[in-house]
């Protein structure tokens, strides 16, 4: 799923150099993928049985592979837009089904196993970065998409028999539900702002660090992002034994804001690699912490509401950054950093008198 969703980032500089793709077109294609991701998430919310369907995940995997393989079929941006939209829908459905299956199957096991499962996101980013780094000098941009489709096909074969998740118990609509609305509003605001700010870096980080440098550094940076994202959820889970989740969310957002600003303020390979490491170590941690806090607050459909806000933020990220790309990527990266810092401020507001102890909801 993450090759299908994120391989566009390391391929974009190659498409700019060989196919004449502009920064504006790159932003539009990124937004198309995020719109598709939101649509896929809404399908999962509106049709709960999709999250437990082996047929749905198989169909989505096939469509995802096709969307990658067809990218080189034309150089028409509208065709690319449709394909990235389709890739977003299918990758979102794969994510919903895979996470539901994983959490259902690991319900009786320790938390860190689920953390490693979420590390698959980082593994996909890492693999996409390694692939493009290996073939970049010898292959055309068309070949990189075909190679990505082939690797995704192999991984889809390994995931073909993913077990279906078990249906969850129905949560009671008891009127005794705790009043946690103000904390959830702050959390939702924080996560939506994170979606806008993080995706600016997620889309343009590789292209930004390659300005004035070699193409190799861009691929290396993306590899570092993936490598540090793999164990990040396990790390944040272990830190949760000593510090509260709201505090950890605040810290992770602050660190991420710094990581996005670094490449815009300072040049050099070392700075780029440090920024990539900090970014990779935080962006999945922010998601896992936010969803865990939303579940703790016992807000109805918390995960769906948070995911929707995050997805909408991702759609608008490239759009708001596009006008700043005329003179390079620095201004866009600074904007992304400011938005993630604003997300940290919202998280700080949530920390005030946070209800750490809540009675569980009754289940019928």
Largest sheet: number of strands, sense, barrel closure: none
Give, in order, the helices and strands. Answer: HHHHHHHHHHHHHHH
Decide which structural class fits the backbone: mainly alpha
Query: In percent, how helical is the residue content?
Result: over 70%
* Structural shape: globular
Separation of the first and last Cα atoms: 35 Å
- Can you count the beta strands? 0
Radius of gyration: 20 Å
Average residue pLDDT: 84
Taken as a percent bin, the fraction of beta residues is under 5%
Number of helices: 15
Low-confidence parts: none
Description:
The protein has 364 residues and is mainly α. It has helices at 2-6, 8-19, 23-46, 54-69, 77-105, 111-118, 120-135, 141-158, 181-210, 215-229, 232-239, 245-265, 269-296, 302-321, 330-351.
Q: What's the helix and strand layout?
A:
Elements lengths: L1 H5 L1 H12 L3 H24 L7 H16 L7 H29 L5 H8 L1 H16 L5 H18 L22 H30 L4 H15 L2 H8 L5 H21 L3 H28 L5 H20 L8 H22 L13
Helix pairs in contact: 2-9, 3-5, 3-14, 4-5, 4-8, 6-11, 7-10, 9-10, 9-12, 9-13, 9-14, 9-15, 10-13, 11-13, 12-13, 12-15, 13-14
Features:
364 residues
Provide a short characterization of the protein structure:
The protein has helices at residues 2-6, 8-19, 23-46, 54-69, 77-105, 111-118, 120-135, 141-158, 181-210, 215-229, 232-239, 245-265, 269-296, 302-321, 330-351. The chain has 364 residues and is mainly alpha-helical.
